[in-house]
Amino acid sequence: xxxxxxxxxxxxxxxxxxxxxxxxxxxxxxxxxxxxxxxxxxxxxxxxxxxxxxxxxxxxxxxxxxxxxxxxxxxxxxxxxxxxxxxxxxxxxxxxxxxxxxxxxxxxxxxxxxxxxxxxxxxxxxxxxxxxxxxxxxxxxxxxxxxxxxxxxxxxxxxxxxxxxxxxxxxxxxxxxxxxxxxxxxxxxxxxxxxxxxxxxxxxxxxxxxxxxxxxxxxxxxxxxxxxxxxxxxxxxxxxxxxxxx
Amino acid sequence: xxxxxxxxxxxxxxxxxxxxxxxxxxxxxxxxxxxxxxxxxxxxxxxxxxxxxxxxxxxxxxxxxxxxxxxxxxxxxxxxxxxxxxxxxxxxxxxxxxxxxxxxxxxxxxxxxxxxxxxxxxxxxxxxxxxxxxxxxxxxxxxxxxxxxxxxxxxxxxxxxxxxxxxxxxxxxxxxxxxxxxxxxxxxxxxxxxxxxxxxxxxxxxxxxxxxxxxxxxxxxxxxxxxxxxxxxxxxxxxxxxxxxxxxxxxxxxxxxxxxx
Lengths: 246, 261
Prior knowledge:
The complex is a heterodimer. Chain A is an alpha/beta fold. Chain A is 36% helix and 24% strand. In chain A, the strands form two sheets. Chain A has a six-stranded mixed beta sheet, with helices on both faces. Chain A has a four-stranded antiparallel beta sheet with strand order 2-1-4-5, covered by helices on one side. In chain A, helix 3 (95-106) runs parallel beside helix 5 (140-152) and helix 6 (170-187) runs parallel beside helix 7. Chain A starts with a strand and ends in an 8-residue tail after the last helix. By secondary structure, chain B is mainly alpha-helical. Chain B has nine helices and no strands. Chain B has helices at residues 2-35, 40-51, 55-79, 86-124, 127-133, 138-176, 181-191, 194-220, 225-258. In chain B, helix 8 (194-220) packs antiparallel against helix 9 (225-258). The chains are: A alpha/beta, B mainly alpha.
């Protein structure tokens, strides 16, 4: 379980998170929604220690990771996999080297084991046989799937998805959504995704949280959000401009 | 007036911040080098990138510097009939100053720029964050191999430049200017000490460390976008080259005190 307590973060005097409290239960897929620039990715980056908050606590299985140094964070980070918005594949490495990277860093797997695991994971994301290709040779959707394979190859307890469908055509986006659901079912992981793609939200989420004004304004199930009478929520779902959502 | 003070204060603050950032990076680098497992594969790759691939440019620099220096000293010494002093002058100058400094400047341009651009691009495309998220410390994986490769390669590259500079100086002095070969070599050996060679090698070792540290720092903390990467690359070359030139004076003074005659 991940617990966030009174999280504050500002950039150059602009407060992005303002005392945010939130609990991410184990085993569920939690999707954080909110307008562009509201701090969704900032929140996600805090969970794995890529950003340090100005104030507040982030408890992972009861341990606060905020005061930890970069080296002390390593054991916690091994529990996570992260899919970055722009995929963040290492462009000087082949697909195989990218996907194998987390396993090679563990230094406890034999070369044959790594090869098999890479082939298996690429198979899960529907990209079997592209090991020798370079990231520059792949389409945006393929890069996302390779990045997804890299994020889950270590069989992490938690996978963080930063805008998993942004920049993809609707069909590829739907495929990524299917993959996220499939991976969660197969690997039994806790997932946290941030997105403003409502189609994606309703397909993958067990729980939805609306980030608004630097705090979690509402949490609930898909049904709670669909049936909400809150004008802000309905406007957000329908994609209508609304001055009340900051 | 107030604006003027504000600008100066801003610059001083920025310089202090950069210096502090570099010290933090140096501290992390120390931890990476002395407490973490060595990354042989990455280090060997960097040896190839920064050492082996720098050889052509360094050899050309060494050769032509030795040649022009031999020719110029010959023209001056001939007026006072001291042509046979060309050998030792070329040799001592190549060992103590020209070899290490010019090699370092060439490497600061070639390697410093590429390191800053590579790390800068990794930064803006979130590749460094991806490394961190996968529990790999970027200083261990990216900075330590580059630093080790450069501090080890630099003395070797400087030694090559020195040797080729002296050889080409000999060629110009003896075969083009007509100095007696025996006098050239005899005087060169008599007036060139091991300390001259040591001084050049120690200097280039230190310069290698400066260039790697500055280039990695600039790449690591580069601003967003293509402009940020471009700026980091330029700054890495300019700051690296200036650091080599300025520190050269102080290191020369220090080494002259440390290494006995």
